[in-house]
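Reviewer 2 asked us to include a model.

Predict the structure of this chain.
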Amino acid sequence: MSIKDGLWRLLCHPAPIRTLVMRSFRPLLPYELSIVSGAAERPNYGYCLLQAARLARRLGHRAISAVEFGVAHGHGLFALERHAVKVERITGIKIEIYGFDTTCGLPAPQGFRDLPYVWQQGFFSTDRDSLK
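Predicted model (C-alpha cells):
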C-alpha cells in the first residue's frame, strides 16, 4: 500500500482522526482516559462498568453482576470481560459477567417497523462451539 492510499484510508475512516490517534496510544493511556477518549474497545461497556463498580463501592457492596443479552458471536461479551479485569483492579469490586442468547438469532420480521429489508430471520445466530 502506498502512502497516498494509507492517507486516503485514514481520512475516510468512519472514526474521527482524534479517536484513531488515541487508539494508537492506548497502551500508554490510563484506563479511564482511554474510555473517555474513545480509545478503548467498546468504551461504552467500560464506562458503564466503571460507574456501576464505583457506585457499588460507595454503597458498600463487594461484587456486582454485568449482563449482556444477545451474545451472538461473543465479541461484546469478551470485551466486557476484558473491561471487568481492569475495573476490578481500579475499584476492588468483584465483577461477574453473564451472557444470555437464544442461539437462533433474530426472529422473523412482523411488519415494516422491523425493517425486513435490513434485518432478516436468523441474523446474529450463535455458534455455541466457537464460544466455548
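The CA atoms of residues 68 and 99 lie 5 Å apart. The helical segments are 3-11, 17-24, 31-37, 43-59, 75-91, 128-131. We have added this to the supplementary material.
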